[in-house]
Specification:
The protein is an all-alpha fold. It has 9 helices and no strands.
Length: 209
């Protein structure tokens, strides 16, 4: 399940499951919800899993890119996360939404990578600024780029957990309860990390307000 640089491949990895897995023709899938697709994928239905990858892959890639600050590293992390998800799907019980389950797998994969490289990052850690208006003055364009550099530096100064909690809350709008489940920490810890991340970023960007 490798990417071509622009999108993720929806091909499910091989899984040693003994008998040949059941496959449902695409006409049978229609537009089922994630829960049904996850059940079918857990039974070995590769086409159902490919549908889940196509449905959630872009969002997972955006999340990983914002956490890791590198499109290339994000693609690798998401590929690994979906491989891991495929292997663990027989254990998926639907106690949380499939998307929340994938947020958890992708976030944990990214957190491990952030810790391993000691919070190293690059300027892709935040969304690129919008293309400047052709009528904008050179000074305003330069100011926009400088602000982007400042925000990237501020994001790099956050701990991996603060960064993950802030991104999930501020950019994805996840409730605190879901973030606690995704990151694997208490609700109180999530609130504390989001608060400290907001304070750090506000202080770092005060000159650009």
């Amino acid at each position: 399940m490798r990417g071509d640089g622009n999108k993720l491949s929806a091909r499910a990895p091989d899984r040693d499951r003994g008998p040949e897995p059941r496959r449902h023709h695409s006409r049978d899938l229609g537009f089922p919800d994630d829960g049904l697709l996850a059940v079918r994928a857990g039974e070995g239905d590769e086409e159902a899993f490919e549908t889940l990858v196509r449905r959630h892959g872009p969002a997972m890639l955006r999340l990983a890119t914002r956490l890791l600050g590198s499109r290339t590293e994000a693609e690798d992390a998401v590929q690994d996360a979906f491989v891991n998800a495929w292997r663990k799907l027989p254990e998926f019980r639907g106690e949380s939404a499939f998307s929340t389950w994938m947020y958890r797998i992708v976030t944990n994969r990214c957190l491990n990578q952030l810790r391993a490289r000691h919070l190293a990052t690059d300027l892709d850690s935040v969304p690129e600024p919008a293309t400047p208006d052709p009528q904008s003055s050179p000074a305003r364009v330069a100011e926009s780029h400088a602000a982007t550099h400042a925000l990237a530096g501020a994001m790099a100064g956050l701990s991996p957990e603060q960064r993950a909690c802030w991104v999930l809350r501020e950019l994805y709008g996840l409730p605190y309860e879901n973030i606690a489940e995704v990151v694997g920490i208490s609700l109180q810890a999530v609130r504390g990390r989001v608060f400290r991340a907001r304070r750090s970023l506000t202080e770092a960007m005060s000159a650009w307000r």
